[in-house]
Structure prediction request, 158 residues.
Amino acid sequence: MIEKDGIKVTSTVAVDPETAFRVFTEETDAWWRRGPAFRGVLSDGGVMRFEPGPGGRLVEVGPGGGEFEIGRILAWEPGRRLLFEWRNRNFTKGEVTQVEVRFEELADGTRVVLEHRGWSTLAEDHPARHGREGLAFARMIGGWWGDLLASLRHHAAE
Prediction:
């Protein structure tokens, strides 16, 4: 779904909310797709990981120890909600968006609802937009997160 200031992507995983949260945050490197489209920061074999708790970070750590901080954790509610900042490598100091992930219990698993907001704070010609505007940009970002949530769904089922 396309929101005014971002996107919303939903997926269902066949595990309870606590397990879905744990897989999302503790097994990030296993389900987060590899390659320059998904790990453009350190695509040479970097490891994606969350540092738990408010004030923790989402980072990509390279094989040589170098790291890129994607964002700080703003809310850490196991089994319920995760909120973190998101910065692409081409963001300048102070440019940041937010990703909120909710874990909603279903009879046969968990609905994972991911919202990536704050894109309106970036210039229309920002490099993160890859020359796309409006609906085309929202579809690109939604498709990107959709691919990642599909990977999460398959990993959680293993």
